[in-house]
Every structure is written in structure tokens, then in C-alpha cells.
Amino acid sequence: MHRHSSIRLAVVISVMGLTTAALAASADDFKAAYAKAEAAENQAGALKNQWSTTEGALKAAKKAADAGNFGEAVKHAEEAEALANASVAQAKEQATAWKNAVVR
Amino acid sequence: MRRAVLLALALICLAAPPVSAADSANPKADFKAFRNYFTKRFPKVPLKDFVNGPYSMNADLRKQWVAIDAFPPYQFALDKGKQMFTTPFKNGKTYGDCFPNKGIGVRQNYPYFDAKSGEVITLDVALNQCRQANGEEPLDYTKDDMAALTAYMAYTSRGKPFDIKIPNDPRALAAYQKGEEYFYTRRGQLNFSCASCHVQSPGDHIRTEVLAPAMGIVAALPIYRSEWGGMGTTSRRFITCNAQVRAVPLKAEDELYRDVEYYLSYMSNGLPISGPGARP
Amino acid sequence: MASTIRLRAVASGDTTEVQALVQHPMDSGFVKSAQGNLIPPHYIEVVEFEHAGKPVFTAYWGPAVSKDPYIKFSFKGAQKGDDLTVSWIDNKGATDSLVGKIQ
Questions:
Q1: What digits encode the pLDDT tens for the residues C41-88?
Q2: How many domains does one find in chain B?
Q3: B10 lies in a domain?
Q4: Which residues have a Cβ under 8 Å from the Cβ of A28 and sit 6 or more positions away?
Q5: Which residues, in sequence order, are CB contacts of C93 under 8 Å at separation 6+?
Q6: Tell me: the pLDDT tens digits for B193-249?
Q7: Counting CB atoms within 10 angstroms of each CB, which of A68, B254, C46, C81 has the fewest?
Q8: How many B/C residue pairs have CB atoms within 8 Å?
Q9: Chain C residues in contact with B230 (beta carbon < 8 A)
Q10: Closest residue of C to B71, CA-based?
């Protein structure tokens, strides 16, 4: 009986551990991830090449954070950062690549 | 995350081969090349018909357009535009006082490069400048009243060939170049440029729409689009195109938008104004 | 107030081809405004074309018909110079009508 309850306790603790890990993303984690995403999006803005999906991911991140779901919020912020970086890469590559499309 | 990484890799793989040596702009040569490209690709389309966009590319669409042209859907906007144009401002002046030839039959000269401001001025911008100079509030650039006014002005120019000038001014040439660059630059998460659809694929379908050729594409503006259930200006079209490729649009009449309108209009020199237009 | 109806009727032999464009918002009642409120239904319920006192075409419309509807149809028994009357009534009880000449 003693072993049974300790196994049960171990299961409960490990389940809690999993949930806690997901919840472990804190408000600070979100702020950091969002700041990175925003910085990348501002870079894209300076190049006049932002994607609407980046904006959508940023909004989703904010919304999740406002609801206290920091794990989800960080996920969205990371996606936004990746999209923003891709849009910056696109703008930089296109700055020379466009010339090859010109009708001659 | 993975999707974005894959897209980034795809973009890198599209990396350009060495750029051509001819980097300085030559609008006259560009114009010739542009015209040859479209006339060679569509030898059966009469030159002037390119201004009819998808109708020059698809016979069935054309039939429907001819039928509906007895009562063009832009008729109500046109009537409103005429009424607006002929109604004086609160100070007694009219739109005609701001334009050459009283604003009648001048649409084909826009956009033009304004030496004083060093910027491209489109017809829509000129209209708002006229309003503000006469103590009136500027109009929203994308639809409604602005579309009605420009519909009327286009109508008075129907049939007149585009006559866009690039003066001997390095700033004008730079504006033309920026417009050309914008037109061919891929943008948005879907990675399309204006050219992807309107140079590479005119006459083809994108979803249910038939794509118009870039040559003459601005001649029919402003347009009544069935999709919008109403009128839209050049600004509205540029903004929605951007949104459709998942790019965040610029503000209406942003300098870049005016530059690309300048470029496209110059490329349509000699082709007749067909606006206001009706499109699916 | 200007008419909401544009009419064109052309006789060719015994057949008259009619085209008409009616200006009307034809709000279905299912669309939300920019503020998020439902735009109330406002659409034409009946549109009728009459020649020599008899209806030659009657349409019962509803929310499925789009803004500024366009109609095209043909009928027999009229000739050039005859009058053709178009009239409509919407779900708010508003009406409009127009008399045009067959060309």
C-alpha cells in the first residue's frame, strides 16, 4: 500500500512536471520572445516588406499572453519571428533578383 | 516554425544568377521590350485591345462583358462623378479650375513627375490637392467619391492615348526605376511579384479569375469590380493585390505605389484610356 | 430623385430583347458592417415588366440577389415605339418605376 501510493505520487508528480513545463513559459519569456519578433518585423517594415501572416502571428501571441497562456504566446511569437526573418531574407534577396525578371 | 524555415530555404534556392551589366535605366528600351513581349505572345490581340485586360484574353468573358456594357455597372458612379465634378466648392471654385483644359480630357497625362515636389503626382493625388487648396477635406483614396470623380475624368478621356512623360530629371528617372523595381519584386508570403501574374501569366487563371496583361492594365481604372460589389481606384487595386499575396499593403498613394503607377502608365503609352472599367 | 432603373429594349422582328439595371443595395441581412453589426435586410421583392397593360416578365427576388441587379430577357408581341413599364417593390415597401420606349 505504501509502494502503491508512492507510485501514484510519482505519476502525479511527473504529470504535473509535464504540465508545469508547458506552463513554465513565463510572462518574461513571452516578453523576450515578443520583443525579438517585433524587432524582426520592424526590420521588415524598414524594407517595406512585411507579411500579413507575421502580423497575424504577433496578434495571436499578444492575445494568448493577455489570456495568461504564455506557452502558447511564446510559440506564436517564435513563429512571428521566423516569418519576419523570412520576409527580411526575401526583401534582401529580391533587391538584386528582381532584375532577372525584367522583360528585355 | 518548420514551415517558415522551409520557405526561407526555398527562397535561398531561388537565389539569382549574376545580375546583368545594364543597370542604368533606359525607359525607351524598356518600353520597346515590354511591347514586343506582349504583342509577340498574343499576336491575335489588336494592340489597342490590351487595355481591356482579361477580355482581350478570353472570348467567353468578353461576350459577357459586351452584354453587360449596355448598362455598365460603373454607370451610377459615373453619374455621381459628373455631378461632383461640376458642383463648386464652398468657396465657389470648381475642380476644373485646378486642371488644364478645365479637367476635361486630361486623364491620359497622369501620373506626371512634379519637379517642384520631386515626386510623382497621380490624378487621385492631384484631385485631393485641388480639394485641400480650396478648403475642402481630402477624400479616401480607395473608393466611393474618389472613384466616382476619377471615373468621370477617365470617361472624358476615353479613347485618348496615354501620354506619360519622363522629363530629363534624374529624380524622375529614379521614380520610374523604383516603380519598375517594385513591379518585378516578389513580395508577401506567397512570394509573387506583380510580374508573376501580369507578365508571366496573362490569360491564365488564378483561382477563378483570368489574369490581365500588364501592358494597358492601368488604362481601365477606376473599375467596378463585381468581386467588390462596387468601385475601386488604383489604390484599392494595389492594396488588395498586396493583401492577396499576404504582403502588408502600403498606405494608399504611398510614394512607391505612385512610382509603380508611373512605370505602368509609361509602359502603356500610346494605348487608349478605356476607363472607367468593369471587371469580374 | 434620379430613377434607380436603367432600361433598354430593342425590337427585332416579333422579339423584343430587354436589358435593365436596377440600383439597389440588396442587403441580405446576413452581412455585418465594419462595426460588427448586422446590416438589416433590404432587398427588392418583386420586379415586373409590363407591356400593353399585361405583365411580360415578373421576378420574385430575395436576399440571394446581389447589389445593383442586372436583368436580361426577351418577349414576343411588342413593336418598336411601344411603351414598356418597369416597376419594383422592396421589403421596406419602397417602390420605383420607369416607362421606356422600345427601340
A1: 999 999 999 999 999 999 999 999 988 898 999 999 999 999 999 999
A2: 1
A3: no
A4: none
A5: none
A6: 999 999 999 999 998 899 999 999 999 999 999 888 889 999 999 999 999 999 999
A7: C81
A8: 23
A9: 67
A10: C21
Select from B70, B73, B79 the Cβ nearest to the Cβ of C19.
B70
From chain C, pick out residues whose CB is under 8 angstroms from the CB of B70: 8, 19
Report the chain B residue with the minimal C-alpha distance to residue C8.
Answer: B70
Residue in A with minimal Cα distance to B13 = A93
Cα→Cα distances C87→A29, B178, C44, Å? 67, 54, 10
Query: For the domain C5-30+38-101, what is the CATH superfamily, name and number?
Result: Immunoglobulins (2.60.40.10)
Q: How far is C97 from chain B (nearest CA, A)?
A: 17
In chain C the beta strands, taken as DSSP E runs, fall at 5-12, 15-22, 44-51, 54-60, 70-76, 83-90, 95-101
C-alpha–C-alpha distance, residues C28 and A37, integer Å: 42
Pick from B4, B23, B256: CB nearest A83:
B4
pTM comes to 0.84
What is the ipTM for the molecules in this complex?
A: 0.84
Q: B246: domain range?
A: 27-280
How many whole angstroms from its chain centre is CA A92? Answer: 23
Residue B199 lies in a domain: yes
What is the CATH number for B94?
1.10.760.10
Domain ranges of chain C: 5-30+38-101
